[in-house]
Amino acid sequence: MNRKQNFINGFIKENPVFGLYLGLCSALAISTTIDNAIGMGLCVTLVLIFSNVIISAMRKITPSEIRIPVYIVVIATLVTCAEMLIHAFMPSLFTSLGVFISLIVVNCIILGRAEAFASKNGVVDAALDGLGMGLGYTFSLLLISVVRELLATASLTLSNPFTSDIIFQINLTSLEAYKISLFSSPAGAFLTFAAFSAVFAMIKNKSDAKEKGTK
Amino acid sequence: MKFTFKPSPNFRQAQSTQSIMRDLTIGLLVIFGFTLTYYFTEYGANYALRAVSLMLTSVVCATLTEVIFFKCMKQDIKLSLQTSFPWVTAIILTLMCSINVTYYALAISTIIAVVFGKLVFGGFGQNIFNPAAVGRSIIFASFAGSVSADVITGATPTAGLAGSNWLVTSSSEGLSNLFLGLYPGAMGETSFLLIALVGAFLAYRKVIDYRVPVTYITTLFLLATVYGMMNGQGIEYGLYHIAIGGAMFGAVFMMTDPVTNPTCASGRILFAVGCAILTIVIRLKANLPEGVLYSILLMNMMTPTIEKFMDGKQTLTLKKNVITIAIVFMFGILSVVACSFANNAQADEVVNNTNDTYEVSYRV
Amino acid sequence: MKKIITLTLFLAITSAVAGGILAYVNELTAPIIDGMAIEAEKENLELIFPGADFEEVAFEDETGLVKGAYLAQGQGYIYKVEVVGYNSSSPVVFMIAYDNDANNVGFAILNQQETSGFGSRIDTPEFIDTVIGTTVNDSISTLSGATVTTKAVVSGINAAKAVYAIHAGVTVDVQEPTEPEAEVLTLSSDFATDAQIVENVDGVYTISAKGYAANNTVVVTITDGIVASVEVTEFNDTPTIGDLATTDEYLSSFVGKDPSSQVDVVSSATLTSKSILAAVQLALNDANGVVAVNLGNNDFATNKAEIVSSDAGTYNVLSYGFQANNEYVIVIENGAVASVVCSTFADTVGMGDLATTDEYLGSMTGFTTESSFDVVSGATMTSNSVLAAVQAALNAEVKGE
User: Fold this and answer.
1) CB pair distance less than 8 Å for A74 and C18
2) Do the chains contact at A88 and C22, CB–CB below 8 Å?
3) C168, C200, C219: which is the final residue of a domain?
4) Does the beta carbon of A88 lie under 8 angstroms from any beta carbon of chain C?
5) pLDDT digits (tens, 9 = 90+) for B112-148
6) Domain endpoint, select from C248, C264, C288
C-alpha cells in the first residue's frame, strides 16, 4: 500500500513541477510541443530511475561526507551516456532538445530525490519513486505543452522520435485565426504554469482537508 | 517646489475611492466621446459604431471575468464589483488600442489583464502593474499581426517617425493636427489638448496628483529637445515627442494610478522622471513606437524600491530626495546624448552600406 | 588522516568507473554520430565529387566563415562556407573544392537569397566560371553590379583557401578580390537610361532623365555645339546619396565638353550621374542635329533592307534610301561590322551622299546590334538605309551562326 501511495504521490500531491516546484527551467523552456515534452520527460524518467537505483544500491558504502559529489558523478555519467545515445539513435529529438539534455544534470528533481529518498530507502522503493516522480514530471510537462501548443499553433502533432514519422496530428485549421502567439514564448509558459499550479494547489488543499475531516 | 504632505493620520479626505473612480470614468468617457466624434466625421458611422462595440466588448469581458472570479472565491459579487472597478481597466485598455484591433484580441487581453494583472495579486489596490498596460502589452506580444482588414486608417505618426529614424521630416504629421488629435492613432491617445484639459480638471478635483503628469511632460520635452538640438531639429522636436504616442494619455491616466505609483510626493516625481527617461530611450534607441507603455510597466516594477528609498520622515529626507531626482535627471540627459551619438553612427553606417548598394543596384 | 584517504579513494574509484562506462558508450555511439554528420552533407558533397568516400576532417579557421571540411579520398578537400552577402538575414552557403594539386575543381552555391538579377548572379556561369579551374593563388574579380555579394563570397573562398593551405601543406597567396575593369565613358556612350527633352529654348534644354528612383530635371545650355552649363533644377533621387552627383563641382566639369569628351560617373551616385550624363548627351546631340539611333531596337521598316547575296560573312544588301535602293557591301566578322562600302548609290548627290562618306561608313566598324549610331542630319533617309543594311547583315550573321 505504501509503495502504491508513494507512486501516486508523484503525480498529483507531490508533483515535482506543480507541487514541489522542482526542475522548472527545463519544464518551461521545453514544453512548447508535445514531442519535446514527451522526449524530455522520458529522458528525465530514465535518468531518474537509474540514478535512484544506483545511488540506493551504493547507499551503504557511500561515506556521508562526500555523498553529494558521488551523486553528481553518477548523475553526470548517466546524463552524458543518455545524451550520446540520443544523439546517435534519435537525432531529431537531439536537435529539438539541444542543450537541455545536458542540463538534466542540474535538474533539481534528480539530485533532490537522490538526497531525499534514494539514499535512505531500498533499491526497489527507490526505483518506484524514480518512476513515479519521472512520470509525474512527464505528466506535468505534457499538460503544459498541450495547452501551449494548442493555443499558440492551433494544432497538435505527435511524432516518432526514432524516425520522425508523424503518429497523429490534430489540425484545428478553423481556429487558426484565434491563435495567441504569446504562448509560444516563455511569458506564456509562465502564465500556463501559474494557472496549473493554482489548480493543483486547489486539489491538494481539498484532499488535505478531506483527510483531516474538515470541510 | 514645495512638497506638502498630510502627516495627521486622522485627517480624512473629502472624497472616497468611489468618487475618485467615478470622476476618472467620466474623464475617460469625455475623451471617448471626442474619439467617437472624430471617427464619425472622418470615417463614417461604421467606424464610430465599431469603437463603441470594442469598448462594450472590453467592459463586458472585464466585468464577467471578475464576476466569475468572485463567484469562485465565494465573495459577494455586487459588493466586490463595486470596490473592484473592472470597467476602468477596460475603458483605459480600449482607449489605448487602435480602431483596427480585432474583438477577439481585445477580449483575450482584457481577460488576461484582469486576471493576471489585478486579481491574482489580491484584487484592486494590491496590484503591482497597471492592468491596462499589461493588457496592451499582451496585445503587442500576441496579436500584433491580427488587425481587422476592413478597417483602414493609415500609419500612426509614431510608426512614421520610427521609420524615419526619429527625425521629423516633411512627411510627418503637422504639429497642430497632433495637438488637436485629428489623426488616426490609438483611439483615446490622440488629442493632447483634450487630455490636458481633462487632466487639469481632474487635478483640480484632486482626483489625480498633478505632479506626475507635469513632471513627466516637462522632462520628456526637455530630453527630446536635447536630442533634437543635437540633430539640428530644434524645439519643435520636443513638442513633437510630447504630442505623439500616447504620452499625455499615459501621463494623466496611467502614471497617476495611485495603486501602482509611489505614495510619497518626491517618489512620484522620481517615478515620472524615470518614466520620461525610459520613454525617450525606448523610442530613440530601441526604435519601438510604444515607449510610453513599456516605461510605465518598468517603473511600476521599480515602485517598491522607490518607496523604500524615499519614504519615511519626508521633511528630514527632503535634501536627499531632491539630489536623487537631480542625479536621475542628469542621467537621463546623458542617455539621450548617448542615444544621439549612437543613432548618428548607425545612420552613417547605413549610408556607407547604401553607397555600396547604389553600385549594386545598377546593371552596368 | 585515514578518513581523508578513504574518502579520496572512494571518489577516485567512483570517477574511474564512471569514466570507463562513458568511454564504452562513446565508442558505441561516436561512429554513428559522425556518420550522421556526413550523411547530412552527403547530398551536397556529391555535387562536387560524386561517388567518392567522404570523411569529415577537423579544421582551424580564424574567420569563422568555414563551417565544415571534408576529405574526399584521393580526390581533394571540400569546404562548406557560409558568408553574409547583401541580404543580411540569409547567408550565402556554398561548397568549394580543391584537389590535391591546389586547383579548384568544384564550386557550388547551396543556398542564396540575394537580390535577383544582381547578387544572384553569383549562381550563374558568369561568376562560377571565374572560380572553377583557377588555382589557389589566383585572384577572383568581383562582378560589377553585385559588388557586395561577390566580395563576401570571395572572402569566404579566401578563408577556405587558408584552411586548404593548412590541410594540404602548401602556402597560399591569398588575393584580395580585384575590381573589374572600369569602363571609359564618353558623352557618346550609351547610358542606358531614358531621357526626354521637355523644352528647348534657344539652346537651353530642359530635359527629364530617369535617375535612381525617379526622374530628375536637368537644364543644359549648349552654345556652339558644346556644353556651356548644366544645372539640376529638380532632384528626385535619394538625398545625401544621389545628390553627390549634383554638386557644383561635378556639374561644372561638363562645361566645354563635346560628344567625344571623356566623362566620369560619381561613384556611389552612379544612377543619378548617368541621368545627368544622358541629359547632357541628349542636349548635345539635339543641338548638333544628331539623332541617336540604336541599331538593336529600331526596325527600319521603311528601308526594306534585303540581302541579295551573302558569302561567308560578306553581305550584299539592298536598302531603300531617299528615293531608290542603294546597294551596300558589308563584311561581318565575329558578330561585328568589319567594313561597309556603298557599291551603288542611287540617292541625291550632294545631300544623301553625306551619309556614304568613307568617314561615316568607317565609323560603323566594330559595331554590333547593341550599338547606337548617329544619323547624319540632312541625309536622314540615306543614313537610315545604311543602318538598315548593316542591321540586316548583322542579324543574318547571328541567325546563320
Assistant:
1) yes
2) no
3) C168
4) yes
5) 999 999 999 988 888 999 999 999 999 888 887 667 7
6) C288
